[in-house]
Amino acid sequence: CLEILGPDGELRYMNPAGLKMIEVNELDSVIGECVYPMILKEYQDAFIALTKRVFKGEQGFLRFQIKGQKGTVLWLETQAVPLFDNQGKVESLLGITQNITIRKHAEDIIRNNERKYRLLFENMTTGFALHDIICDEAGKPISYRYLEANPAFEKLTGIAISNVIGKTIKEILPQIEPYWIDVFGKVALTGESISYENYVSEIGKYFDTWVFSPQKGQFAVVFNDITIRKKTEKSLAEKEKILSLISDSTPLIMILVDAEYRIIKVNQTALNISERTEQQVLKERSGHIINCV
Predict the structure, then answer these.
(1) What stretches of 33-123 adopt beta strand conformation (E)?
(2) 30-38, Cβ contacts within 8 angstroms, sequence gap of 24 or more
(3) Cα within 13 Å of Cα(196), Cβ side
(4) Rounded to whole angstroms, how far apart are CA atoms 60 and 186?
(5) In whole angstroms, what is the distance from residue 200 CA to residue 205 CA?
(6) Up-side HSE of residue 225: CA atoms within 13 Å toward CB?
(7) CB 128 within 8 Å of CB 169
(8) pLDDT score recorded for residue 290
(9) How far apart are CA 219 and CA 141, in angstroms?
């Protein structure tokens, strides 16, 4: 859209594309009229200020909204420059304007989504860290750099985010095993995700970890603290081992059944007396083995 304005915002010329934006069929119906009223109120002062600057010989840029004569509201972006007469005096404002409504709505959607994702990112209880893989001239991964991490990363690891962002793993942990650089490098370069459980002896925690590549050359690590679960599993395993030793060494018959009286555990004494194997009695009802005894 091309438009030419006078010092008070009066319209001196507008091409057909501009007339379409303001929902007018004929230039004669708006020529000489001030364009300020069609600009939404919150942008009028900025547009008037831009016009004044142009008539002082300056150039300017502005994003603003207008309301056409049929009520359509549009986002516009204009670049305004002065037009000079033969004496070098500013005679008019030349505006080169484009309709950016679709782009502006897309920007707003992206911005709102970014806010939502940022809010989720900052409040999620799962740890997250994004990295750039660093390769040598031959393309072999030799290190990686921390790009971003969420508050849960700091809470779960005890490592301050400010101490890692922008730094390479070799600056933070010079003795890191090359194995991990190779593993993460493969994810970053091939896009193949991996998952694993690992124990970090430095902080005494177990983590359930998922590693994926959001784009080539990068990898993200998502992890949960499963220390309590792992310790509970270990404690239960130890108790079960002790219970098994006790049950197998006692001369008494010991049978463990579920709610439907199916056998889920039987000690060696019961097996010896019944002259059956554990595989033969498991899942049978407890009365069967008692009858055998």
Answers:
(1) 60-67, 73-84, 90-99
(2) 34/8, 34/9, 34/10, 35/3, 35/5, 35/9, 35/10, 35/11, 36/9, 38/66, 38/67, 38/68, 38/69
(3) 11
(4) 50
(5) 5
(6) 15
(7) no
(8) 45
(9) 12
Q: Is the confidence at residue 145, as pLDDT, over 70? A: yes
Question: Which of 5-14, 23-32, 92-101, 276-285 has the weakest average pLDDT?
Answer: 276-285
Calculate the CA 165 to chain-centre distance: 17
Q: What is the pLDDT of residues 85-101, one digit of tens each?
A: 988 999 999 999 999 99
- CA gap 275, 293 in Å, rounded: 9
For 49-92, what is each residue's pLDDT tens digit?
999 999 999 999 999 999 999 999 999 999 999 999 988 999 99
Distance, in Å, from the CA atom of 223 to the CA atom of 199, rounded to the nearest integer, reads: 12
